[in-house]
Amino acid sequence: MRASDTREISLQDVEVPKMNLVGNEREGFRMAVVILNSGRIGVSFQAIGIAQAALNEAIKYSKERKQFGQVIANFQAIQFKLADMATRIDAGRLLGYRAAQLKDEGKPCHRESSMAKLFCSQMANFVCNEAVQIHGGYGYIKEYAVERYFRDARVTELYEGTTEAQKMVISRDLLKD
Asked: Regarding the domain with residue range 33-175, which homologous superfamily does it belong to in the CATH classification?
């Protein structure tokens, strides 16, 4: 995420000539929603990728790290963590695929893109936290990739709408007539 040079801009008293107008007048919100749906689907898959990388590192590390005369992958506690991580990643993929398919078909996907973004961003944070836990103290130092994945996962709950914003979108859609 260090490559993302995010900045704030502020525009005041700006007039856009009619010939430079993007889309139709008074349709900006609708256009923004369409763009947000795409962005949320993108963030979902970004979160899935981060989580998958963290799982891969945790599997590799658990097969190398020895404690009490055996690799830690032999311990049921580690096996259960890996199973939970993999299951959540797969569930996230399915939510992401569903939202992407609806969007590709030109169907409404406002709720589905928010559900995918909500679940996948929370899932990535869970998976990365577990990967750091499996690595123990090593998971917190820059020499191990899981430290970066842990940091990168965090932002997925913030941009393209926070976790709370996704819950508002989903619940409003569920409660509309």
From this structure: Butyryl-CoA Dehydrogenase, subunit A, domain 3 (1.20.140.10)
